[in-house]
Amino acid sequence: MLIGKQTWYFSHKPRILGTGTVVGEKEGKGPLGQSFDRSVTDPYFGQSSFEKAERKAMEMAQETAVQKAGLTMAMIDLIVSGDLLAQNISSHFAGRTSGRPLFNVFSACATSMQAVMLGAQLVDSDCANYVMAAVSSHNSSAERAFRTPTEYGAQKPPTAHCTVTGAGAAVIGKGIAGIRITYATIGKIVDLGIDNPWEMGAAMAPAAVDTIKQHFEDTKRTPDDYDLIVTGDLARVGHPIARSLLRKEGICLDERFTDCGILMYDENQPEVFSGGSGPACAACVTFGYLLQGMEEGRYQKILVIATGALLSLLSSQQKESIPCIAHAVAFEREET
Amino acid sequence: MTLSAKIGVESAAYKDFVKRVQPRKAWLRNAFRAFITGGLLCILGQGIEDFFITVFHFTEKTAGNPTVAVLIILSVLVTGFGVYDRFAQFAGAGSAVPVTGFANAIASAALEHKSEGYIVGVGTNIFKVAGPVIVFGVVSAFLISLLRYIFMQIIGS
Global pTM? Predict the structure, then answer.
Protein backbone atom coordinates (compact mmCIF):
# COMPACT_ATOMS: atom_id res chain seq x y z
CA MET A 1 0.00 0.00 0.00
CA LEU A 2 1.42 3.36 -1.02
CA ILE A 3 1.74 5.82 1.80
CA GLY A 4 3.08 9.30 1.23
CA LYS A 5 4.96 9.69 -2.01
CA GLN A 6 7.48 6.89 -2.31
CA THR A 7 6.83 4.43 0.48
CA TRP A 8 5.05 1.10 0.64
CA TYR A 9 3.50 -0.22 3.83
CA PHE A 10 3.12 -4.00 3.99
CA SER A 11 -0.02 -4.69 6.00
CA HIS A 12 -0.11 -8.46 5.50
CA LYS A 13 3.09 -8.97 7.41
CA PRO A 14 5.65 -10.43 5.02
CA ARG A 15 8.54 -11.81 7.04
CA ILE A 16 12.10 -12.96 6.60
CA LEU A 17 11.82 -16.73 6.99
CA GLY A 18 15.43 -17.65 6.41
CA THR A 19 18.68 -16.10 5.24
CA GLY A 20 21.88 -17.35 3.66
CA THR A 21 25.17 -15.48 3.65
CA VAL A 22 28.38 -16.61 1.98
CA VAL A 23 31.52 -14.46 1.99
CA GLY A 24 35.13 -14.56 0.90
CA GLU A 25 38.25 -14.76 3.04
CA LYS A 26 38.74 -11.06 3.71
CA GLU A 27 35.11 -10.63 4.83
CA GLY A 28 35.36 -13.78 6.96
CA LYS A 29 38.38 -12.31 8.75
CA GLY A 30 36.55 -9.04 9.33
CA PRO A 31 34.79 -8.05 12.54
CA LEU A 32 31.50 -9.65 11.41
CA GLY A 33 33.13 -12.90 10.25
CA GLN A 34 31.25 -15.01 12.79
CA SER A 35 27.84 -13.80 11.66
CA PHE A 36 28.05 -15.24 8.15
CA ASP A 37 26.90 -18.77 7.32
CA ARG A 38 29.91 -19.62 5.21
CA SER A 39 33.28 -18.06 4.66
CA VAL A 40 35.27 -19.46 1.75
CA THR A 41 39.03 -18.95 1.67
CA ASP A 42 39.49 -19.94 -1.98
CA PRO A 43 38.81 -16.82 -4.11
CA TYR A 44 37.79 -19.14 -6.95
CA PHE A 45 35.29 -21.06 -4.77
CA GLY A 46 36.66 -24.22 -6.42
CA GLN A 47 35.67 -22.94 -9.89
CA SER A 48 37.75 -22.05 -12.94
CA SER A 49 37.01 -18.30 -13.13
CA PHE A 50 36.01 -15.42 -10.85
CA GLU A 51 32.67 -15.13 -12.65
CA LYS A 52 31.91 -18.77 -11.92
CA ALA A 53 33.06 -18.24 -8.34
CA GLU A 54 30.53 -15.43 -7.87
CA ARG A 55 27.80 -17.62 -9.34
CA LYS A 56 28.77 -20.41 -6.95
CA ALA A 57 28.51 -18.02 -4.00
CA MET A 58 25.06 -16.98 -5.23
CA GLU A 59 23.95 -20.63 -5.44
CA MET A 60 25.35 -21.44 -1.99
CA ALA A 61 23.58 -18.48 -0.40
CA GLN A 62 20.27 -19.42 -2.01
CA GLU A 63 20.53 -23.04 -0.88
CA THR A 64 21.38 -21.99 2.67
CA ALA A 65 18.48 -19.54 2.84
CA VAL A 66 15.99 -22.14 1.64
CA GLN A 67 17.30 -24.69 4.15
CA LYS A 68 17.20 -22.28 7.06
CA ALA A 69 13.63 -21.31 6.13
CA GLY A 70 12.73 -24.98 6.41
CA LEU A 71 11.63 -25.11 2.77
CA THR A 72 12.80 -26.75 -0.42
CA MET A 73 13.85 -24.86 -3.54
CA ALA A 74 10.74 -26.18 -5.34
CA MET A 75 8.54 -24.26 -2.89
CA ILE A 76 10.02 -20.89 -3.87
CA ASP A 77 7.53 -19.16 -6.21
CA LEU A 78 9.90 -16.49 -7.42
CA ILE A 79 13.51 -15.47 -7.12
CA VAL A 80 14.29 -11.76 -7.35
CA SER A 81 18.03 -11.46 -7.76
CA GLY A 82 20.77 -9.23 -9.07
CA ASP A 83 24.50 -8.61 -9.26
CA LEU A 84 27.05 -6.22 -10.75
CA LEU A 85 28.14 -8.06 -13.86
CA ALA A 86 26.85 -7.22 -17.34
CA GLN A 87 23.56 -8.91 -18.20
CA ASN A 88 23.40 -10.00 -14.54
CA ILE A 89 25.14 -13.25 -15.43
CA SER A 90 25.67 -14.36 -11.85
CA SER A 91 21.96 -14.21 -11.08
CA HIS A 92 20.71 -15.46 -14.43
CA PHE A 93 23.14 -18.36 -14.55
CA ALA A 94 22.38 -19.32 -10.95
CA GLY A 95 18.79 -19.58 -12.16
CA ARG A 96 19.83 -22.66 -14.12
CA THR A 97 20.61 -24.39 -10.85
CA SER A 98 17.59 -23.19 -8.89
CA GLY A 99 15.18 -23.83 -11.75
CA ARG A 100 12.66 -21.39 -10.26
CA PRO A 101 10.82 -18.44 -11.87
CA LEU A 102 13.17 -15.52 -11.95
CA PHE A 103 13.17 -11.72 -12.04
CA ASN A 104 16.51 -10.03 -12.23
CA VAL A 105 16.89 -6.48 -11.04
CA PHE A 106 19.76 -4.01 -11.07
CA SER A 107 20.48 -0.97 -9.00
CA ALA A 108 24.17 -1.72 -8.39
CA CYS A 109 24.92 -1.90 -4.66
CA ALA A 110 21.30 -0.98 -3.83
CA THR A 111 20.05 -4.18 -5.49
CA SER A 112 19.72 -6.05 -2.17
CA MET A 113 17.01 -3.80 -0.76
CA GLN A 114 15.36 -3.44 -4.16
CA ALA A 115 15.01 -7.24 -4.30
CA VAL A 116 13.77 -7.40 -0.69
CA MET A 117 11.11 -4.72 -1.20
CA LEU A 118 9.86 -6.30 -4.43
CA GLY A 119 9.74 -9.70 -2.74
CA ALA A 120 7.87 -8.28 0.23
CA GLN A 121 5.40 -6.51 -2.06
CA LEU A 122 4.69 -9.66 -4.06
CA VAL A 123 4.14 -11.69 -0.89
CA ASP A 124 2.04 -8.90 0.63
CA SER A 125 -0.21 -8.77 -2.43
CA ASP A 126 -0.56 -12.58 -2.57
CA CYS A 127 1.25 -12.84 -5.91
CA ALA A 128 3.63 -15.32 -4.32
CA ASN A 129 3.82 -17.38 -1.16
CA TYR A 130 7.58 -17.50 -0.94
CA VAL A 131 9.97 -15.14 -2.69
CA MET A 132 13.72 -15.29 -2.45
CA ALA A 133 15.71 -12.07 -2.69
CA ALA A 134 19.35 -12.73 -3.54
CA VAL A 135 22.37 -10.69 -4.63
CA SER A 136 26.05 -11.32 -5.17
CA SER A 137 29.33 -9.59 -5.94
CA HIS A 138 32.94 -10.70 -6.19
CA ASN A 139 35.92 -8.45 -5.66
CA SER A 140 37.88 -9.84 -8.60
CA SER A 141 35.02 -10.04 -11.10
CA ALA A 142 34.04 -6.46 -10.22
CA GLU A 143 37.64 -5.20 -10.52
CA ARG A 144 37.71 -6.73 -13.94
CA ALA A 145 34.33 -5.39 -15.02
CA PHE A 146 34.81 -1.85 -13.73
CA ARG A 147 38.54 -1.26 -13.24
CA THR A 148 41.79 -2.92 -14.26
CA PRO A 149 43.02 -6.55 -14.23
CA THR A 150 43.12 -7.85 -10.66
CA GLU A 151 46.88 -8.33 -10.60
CA TYR A 152 47.67 -5.01 -12.26
CA GLY A 153 49.77 -2.77 -10.06
CA ALA A 154 47.99 0.55 -9.64
CA GLN A 155 47.71 2.58 -6.48
CA LYS A 156 44.18 3.24 -5.25
CA PRO A 157 43.27 6.45 -3.42
CA PRO A 158 42.00 6.39 0.20
CA THR A 159 38.47 7.18 -1.05
CA ALA A 160 38.29 3.86 -2.95
CA HIS A 161 36.02 1.01 -1.89
CA CYS A 162 36.74 -2.70 -1.58
CA THR A 163 34.06 -4.73 -3.39
CA VAL A 164 32.78 -7.43 -1.06
CA THR A 165 33.14 -11.01 -2.24
CA GLY A 166 30.05 -12.93 -1.32
CA ALA A 167 26.34 -13.41 -1.71
CA GLY A 168 23.31 -12.92 0.48
CA ALA A 169 19.86 -14.41 0.11
CA ALA A 170 16.66 -14.10 2.11
CA VAL A 171 13.42 -16.04 1.84
CA ILE A 172 10.39 -13.81 2.30
CA GLY A 173 6.96 -15.21 3.06
CA LYS A 174 4.04 -14.99 5.41
CA GLY A 175 4.74 -16.88 8.57
CA ILE A 176 3.99 -16.73 12.23
CA ALA A 177 7.56 -16.01 13.28
CA GLY A 178 10.42 -14.05 11.85
CA ILE A 179 11.46 -10.47 11.33
CA ARG A 180 8.71 -8.41 9.72
CA ILE A 181 9.29 -6.20 6.71
CA THR A 182 7.07 -3.20 7.39
CA TYR A 183 7.99 -0.31 5.12
CA ALA A 184 9.97 0.19 1.95
CA THR A 185 10.92 3.54 0.47
CA ILE A 186 11.82 3.57 -3.21
CA GLY A 187 14.66 5.89 -4.10
CA LYS A 188 15.01 8.45 -6.86
CA ILE A 189 18.07 9.06 -8.97
CA VAL A 190 20.21 11.73 -7.34
CA ASP A 191 23.27 13.10 -9.09
CA LEU A 192 25.17 16.02 -7.64
CA GLY A 193 27.89 15.89 -10.24
CA ILE A 194 30.59 13.69 -8.70
CA ASP A 195 32.27 12.03 -11.69
CA ASN A 196 35.27 10.30 -10.15
CA PRO A 197 34.59 6.54 -9.89
CA TRP A 198 37.02 6.46 -6.94
CA GLU A 199 34.68 8.72 -4.98
CA MET A 200 31.54 6.60 -4.87
CA GLY A 201 30.95 7.32 -1.19
CA ALA A 202 30.61 11.03 -1.90
CA ALA A 203 28.56 10.33 -5.02
CA MET A 204 26.05 8.11 -3.20
CA ALA A 205 25.67 10.06 0.06
CA PRO A 206 23.08 12.56 -1.33
CA ALA A 207 20.94 9.68 -2.66
CA ALA A 208 20.91 8.08 0.79
CA VAL A 209 19.97 11.43 2.37
CA ASP A 210 17.16 11.94 -0.13
CA THR A 211 15.65 8.51 0.58
CA ILE A 212 16.03 8.77 4.37
CA LYS A 213 14.33 12.15 4.37
CA GLN A 214 11.52 10.86 2.16
CA HIS A 215 11.08 7.81 4.39
CA PHE A 216 10.54 9.94 7.49
CA GLU A 217 8.18 12.27 5.61
CA ASP A 218 6.10 9.41 4.19
CA THR A 219 5.90 7.29 7.34
CA LYS A 220 5.66 10.18 9.81
CA ARG A 221 8.33 8.40 11.77
CA THR A 222 11.38 9.98 13.37
CA PRO A 223 14.93 8.64 13.77
CA ASP A 224 14.02 7.74 17.36
CA ASP A 225 11.66 5.06 16.06
CA TYR A 226 14.67 3.04 14.96
CA ASP A 227 17.34 1.32 17.00
CA LEU A 228 19.64 1.40 14.04
CA ILE A 229 19.69 3.29 10.74
CA VAL A 230 22.18 1.65 8.43
CA THR A 231 23.30 2.85 5.00
CA GLY A 232 24.55 0.35 2.43
CA ASP A 233 28.09 1.15 1.41
CA LEU A 234 28.85 4.81 1.87
CA ALA A 235 31.83 3.68 3.93
CA ARG A 236 34.20 5.83 5.95
CA VAL A 237 34.21 8.69 3.46
CA GLY A 238 30.59 8.85 2.32
CA HIS A 239 28.94 8.12 5.67
CA PRO A 240 30.15 11.24 7.52
CA ILE A 241 29.14 13.27 4.44
CA ALA A 242 25.61 11.81 4.62
CA ARG A 243 25.51 12.54 8.35
CA SER A 244 26.36 16.21 7.85
CA LEU A 245 23.93 16.57 4.91
CA LEU A 246 21.20 15.11 7.13
CA ARG A 247 22.11 17.51 9.90
CA LYS A 248 21.65 20.40 7.48
CA GLU A 249 18.21 18.97 6.75
CA GLY A 250 17.39 18.99 10.44
CA ILE A 251 17.77 15.24 10.94
CA CYS A 252 20.34 14.66 13.66
CA LEU A 253 21.51 11.10 14.03
CA ASP A 254 23.69 9.71 16.79
CA GLU A 255 25.80 6.56 16.91
CA ARG A 256 22.74 4.55 15.91
CA PHE A 257 23.44 5.75 12.38
CA THR A 258 26.00 3.43 10.81
CA ASP A 259 26.97 1.80 7.51
CA CYS A 260 27.38 -1.77 6.21
CA GLY A 261 30.57 -0.82 4.36
CA ILE A 262 32.09 0.39 7.64
CA LEU A 263 30.86 -2.60 9.65
CA MET A 264 32.10 -5.18 7.14
CA TYR A 265 35.84 -4.60 7.54
CA ASP A 266 38.18 -3.50 10.25
CA GLU A 267 39.86 -0.22 9.36
CA ASN A 268 43.25 -1.83 9.74
CA GLN A 269 42.64 -4.75 7.40
CA PRO A 270 44.90 -4.50 4.33
CA GLU A 271 43.46 -2.85 1.22
CA VAL A 272 39.94 -2.19 2.42
CA PHE A 273 40.41 1.55 1.76
CA SER A 274 37.32 3.48 2.88
CA GLY A 275 35.27 0.30 3.37
CA GLY A 276 33.15 -2.34 1.65
CA SER A 277 30.88 -1.97 -1.36
CA GLY A 278 29.02 -4.16 -3.81
CA PRO A 279 25.51 -5.66 -3.62
CA ALA A 280 26.81 -8.38 -1.27
CA CYS A 281 27.98 -5.74 1.24
CA ALA A 282 24.56 -4.51 2.33
CA ALA A 283 23.05 -7.98 1.80
CA CYS A 284 25.53 -9.96 3.92
CA VAL A 285 25.68 -7.39 6.71
CA THR A 286 21.87 -7.09 6.84
CA PHE A 287 20.95 -10.74 6.38
CA GLY A 288 23.78 -11.89 8.59
CA TYR A 289 24.81 -9.51 11.34
CA LEU A 290 21.82 -7.14 11.59
CA LEU A 291 18.98 -9.65 11.41
CA GLN A 292 20.81 -11.88 13.91
CA GLY A 293 21.04 -8.90 16.20
CA MET A 294 17.28 -8.48 15.89
CA GLU A 295 16.60 -12.15 16.55
CA GLU A 296 18.75 -11.93 19.65
CA GLY A 297 16.72 -8.93 20.75
CA ARG A 298 19.49 -6.34 20.47
CA TYR A 299 17.45 -4.27 18.04
CA GLN A 300 13.69 -4.03 17.65
CA LYS A 301 13.45 -1.85 14.56
CA ILE A 302 16.06 -1.11 11.96
CA LEU A 303 16.09 0.82 8.71
CA VAL A 304 18.50 -0.29 5.98
CA ILE A 305 19.20 2.12 3.15
CA ALA A 306 21.15 0.34 0.43
CA THR A 307 22.99 2.75 -1.84
CA GLY A 308 23.93 2.20 -5.47
CA ALA A 309 26.25 4.07 -7.83
CA LEU A 310 24.81 3.49 -11.28
CA LEU A 311 27.92 4.05 -13.35
CA SER A 312 29.36 1.85 -16.05
CA LEU A 313 32.97 1.59 -17.19
CA LEU A 314 31.96 3.36 -20.41
CA SER A 315 30.08 6.20 -18.72
CA SER A 316 32.93 6.95 -16.36
CA GLN A 317 35.48 6.88 -19.19
CA GLN A 318 33.25 9.33 -21.04
CA LYS A 319 33.50 11.56 -17.95
CA GLU A 320 29.81 11.40 -17.12
CA SER A 321 28.84 12.12 -13.54
CA ILE A 322 27.55 9.25 -11.42
CA PRO A 323 23.78 8.90 -10.96
CA CYS A 324 23.02 7.24 -7.63
CA ILE A 325 20.02 5.66 -5.97
CA ALA A 326 19.12 4.46 -2.49
CA HIS A 327 16.35 2.07 -1.49
CA ALA A 328 15.25 1.76 2.14
CA VAL A 329 13.57 -1.15 3.90
CA ALA A 330 12.37 -1.21 7.51
CA PHE A 331 12.74 -4.47 9.43
CA GLU A 332 10.90 -4.99 12.70
CA ARG A 333 10.96 -7.54 15.41
CA GLU A 334 7.50 -8.45 16.61
CA GLU A 335 6.77 -10.46 19.73
CA THR A 336 4.35 -13.22 18.82
CA MET B 1 22.21 17.36 -14.70
CA THR B 2 19.63 16.05 -12.30
CA LEU B 3 19.61 17.90 -9.04
CA SER B 4 17.49 16.86 -6.18
CA ALA B 5 15.44 19.77 -4.98
CA LYS B 6 14.95 17.96 -1.71
CA ILE B 7 18.58 18.21 -0.76
CA GLY B 8 19.25 21.88 -0.46
CA VAL B 9 22.69 21.64 -1.99
CA GLU B 10 23.83 22.80 -5.38
CA SER B 11 26.15 20.63 -7.40
CA ALA B 12 29.06 23.09 -7.30
CA ALA B 13 28.66 23.71 -3.58
CA TYR B 14 28.48 19.98 -2.93
CA LYS B 15 31.63 19.29 -4.91
CA ASP B 16 33.45 21.98 -2.91
CA PHE B 17 32.18 20.48 0.32
CA VAL B 18 33.27 16.98 -0.71
CA LYS B 19 36.69 18.25 -1.66
CA ARG B 20 37.06 19.75 1.81
CA VAL B 21 36.00 16.73 3.82
CA GLN B 22 37.34 13.84 1.74
CA PRO B 23 40.70 12.38 2.76
CA ARG B 24 43.33 13.65 0.41
CA LYS B 25 45.91 11.61 -1.42
CA ALA B 26 49.11 11.59 0.59
CA TRP B 27 51.15 13.25 -2.13
CA LEU B 28 54.34 13.69 -0.12
CA ARG B 29 54.28 10.20 1.34
CA ASN B 30 53.51 8.73 -2.08
CA ALA B 31 56.33 10.68 -3.71
CA PHE B 32 58.76 9.57 -1.02
CA ARG B 33 57.75 5.92 -1.34
CA ALA B 34 57.91 6.09 -5.15
CA PHE B 35 61.41 7.60 -4.93
CA ILE B 36 62.66 4.90 -2.56
CA THR B 37 61.04 1.87 -4.20
CA GLY B 38 61.69 3.04 -7.76
CA GLY B 39 65.31 3.67 -6.78
CA LEU B 40 65.64 0.28 -5.12
CA LEU B 41 64.29 -1.43 -8.24
CA CYS B 42 66.90 0.42 -10.31
CA ILE B 43 69.65 -0.63 -7.88
CA LEU B 44 68.44 -4.22 -8.30
CA GLY B 45 68.69 -3.80 -12.08
CA GLN B 46 72.18 -2.36 -11.73
CA GLY B 47 73.15 -5.30 -9.53
CA ILE B 48 71.93 -7.78 -12.12
CA GLU B 49 73.81 -5.95 -14.85
CA ASP B 50 77.03 -5.93 -12.81
CA PHE B 51 76.53 -9.63 -12.19
CA PHE B 52 76.37 -10.34 -15.94
CA ILE B 53 79.43 -8.18 -16.56
CA THR B 54 81.63 -9.63 -13.83
CA VAL B 55 80.52 -13.28 -13.90
CA PHE B 56 79.65 -13.83 -17.57
CA HIS B 57 81.98 -11.18 -19.02
CA PHE B 58 79.30 -9.23 -20.89
CA THR B 59 80.18 -5.71 -21.91
CA GLU B 60 78.20 -2.82 -20.48
CA LYS B 61 76.32 -2.62 -23.80
CA THR B 62 75.50 -6.32 -24.20
CA ALA B 63 74.56 -6.82 -20.53
CA GLY B 64 71.47 -4.66 -21.04
CA ASN B 65 69.32 -7.29 -22.74
CA PRO B 66 69.79 -10.17 -20.27
CA THR B 67 69.32 -7.72 -17.38
CA VAL B 68 65.99 -6.55 -18.76
CA ALA B 69 65.00 -10.18 -19.39
CA VAL B 70 65.70 -11.12 -15.77
CA LEU B 71 63.68 -8.14 -14.49
CA ILE B 72 60.78 -9.05 -16.78
CA ILE B 73 60.80 -12.66 -15.58
CA LEU B 74 60.91 -11.52 -11.96
CA SER B 75 58.07 -9.05 -12.46
CA VAL B 76 55.90 -11.60 -14.27
CA LEU B 77 56.50 -14.19 -11.55
CA VAL B 78 55.67 -11.73 -8.79
CA THR B 79 52.53 -10.72 -10.71
CA GLY B 80 51.53 -14.36 -11.07
CA PHE B 81 51.97 -14.98 -7.36
CA GLY B 82 49.59 -12.10 -6.71
CA VAL B 83 52.13 -9.88 -4.97
CA TYR B 84 52.86 -7.13 -7.51
CA ASP B 85 49.52 -5.37 -7.06
CA ARG B 86 50.11 -5.20 -3.30
CA PHE B 87 53.63 -3.90 -3.85
CA ALA B 88 52.17 -1.28 -6.22
CA GLN B 89 49.61 -0.14 -3.65
CA PHE B 90 52.55 0.65 -1.38
CA ALA B 91 55.04 1.87 -3.97
CA GLY B 92 52.72 3.80 -6.29
CA ALA B 93 54.65 5.36 -9.16
CA GLY B 94 57.75 3.52 -7.93
CA SER B 95 56.23 0.30 -9.22
CA ALA B 96 55.61 1.81 -12.63
CA VAL B 97 59.32 1.98 -13.56
CA PRO B 98 59.46 0.98 -17.22
CA VAL B 99 60.57 -2.66 -17.26
CA THR B 100 58.78 -4.19 -14.27
CA GLY B 101 55.69 -1.99 -14.58
CA PHE B 102 55.30 -2.80 -18.24
CA ALA B 103 55.79 -6.52 -17.64
CA ASN B 104 53.17 -6.39 -14.89
CA ALA B 105 50.71 -4.61 -17.21
CA ILE B 106 51.14 -7.34 -19.85
CA ALA B 107 51.14 -10.29 -17.45
CA SER B 108 48.15 -9.12 -15.42
CA ALA B 109 46.05 -8.61 -18.56
CA ALA B 110 47.08 -12.03 -19.87
CA LEU B 111 46.21 -13.71 -16.56
CA GLU B 112 42.90 -11.90 -16.39
CA HIS B 113 41.73 -12.99 -19.82
CA LYS B 114 43.01 -16.56 -19.80
CA SER B 115 39.46 -17.67 -18.94
CA GLU B 116 38.28 -16.59 -22.43
CA GLY B 117 40.90 -18.75 -24.20
CA TYR B 118 44.32 -18.01 -25.68
CA ILE B 119 43.31 -16.30 -28.92
CA VAL B 120 40.18 -14.33 -28.13
CA GLY B 121 41.10 -13.86 -24.48
CA VAL B 122 44.85 -13.53 -24.01
CA GLY B 123 45.66 -12.57 -27.62
CA THR B 124 43.08 -9.80 -27.84
CA ASN B 125 43.56 -8.35 -24.39
CA ILE B 126 47.24 -8.79 -23.57
CA PHE B 127 48.04 -5.17 -24.56
CA LYS B 128 44.85 -3.80 -23.01
CA VAL B 129 46.70 -1.92 -20.29
CA ALA B 130 50.11 -1.67 -21.96
CA GLY B 131 48.76 -0.65 -25.36
CA PRO B 132 48.62 3.11 -24.64
CA VAL B 133 52.24 2.98 -23.44
CA ILE B 134 53.31 1.61 -26.82
CA VAL B 135 51.11 3.97 -28.83
CA PHE B 136 52.19 7.12 -27.04
CA GLY B 137 55.75 5.86 -26.68
CA VAL B 138 56.09 5.40 -30.43
CA VAL B 139 54.27 8.61 -31.31
CA SER B 140 56.29 10.75 -28.90
CA ALA B 141 59.54 9.07 -29.99
CA PHE B 142 58.68 9.93 -33.59
CA LEU B 143 57.86 13.54 -32.77
CA ILE B 144 60.97 14.04 -30.67
CA SER B 145 63.23 12.52 -33.32
CA LEU B 146 61.58 14.70 -35.94
CA LEU B 147 62.25 17.80 -33.84
CA ARG B 148 65.79 16.68 -33.23
CA TYR B 149 66.32 16.09 -36.94
CA ILE B 150 65.00 19.53 -37.88
CA PHE B 151 67.03 21.14 -35.11
CA MET B 152 70.23 19.38 -36.23
CA GLN B 153 69.60 20.40 -39.84
CA ILE B 154 69.26 24.04 -38.82
CA ILE B 155 72.34 23.94 -36.59
CA GLY B 156 74.33 22.00 -39.17
CA SER B 157 73.59 24.38 -42.03
Answer: 0.93
**Residue of B9, B89, B112 with shortest CB distance to A192:** B9
Class (C level, CATH) for A179-332: alpha beta
Bridge partners of residue A167, in order along the sequence: A22, A136
Q: Which of residues 303 through 322 in chain A touch B, CB cutoff 8 A?
A: 321
Domain locations in chain A? Answer: 15-174, 179-332
CA distance B80 to B103: 11
List pLDDT tens digits, range B51-99. Answer: 999 999 999 999 999 999 999 999 999 999 999 999 999 999 999 877 9
Of B11, B23, B108, the CB nearest to A192: B11
Q: Cβ–Cβ of B129/A144 closer than 8 Å?
A: no
Q: Are A123 and A173 in contact (CB under 8 A)?
A: yes
Of A205, A190, A225, the closest CA to residue A299 belongs to A225
Please state, in angstroms and rounded to a whole number, the distance separating the CA atoms of residues A82 and A113.
Answer: 11
Q: Do B115 and A48 touch (CB under 8 A)?
A: yes
A&B contacts, CB < 8 Å:
122
Classify domain A15-174 by CATH number: 3.40.47.40
Asked if residue A195 lies in contact with residue B19, where contact means CB atoms within 8 angstroms, the answer is no
**pLDDT score for B3:** 44
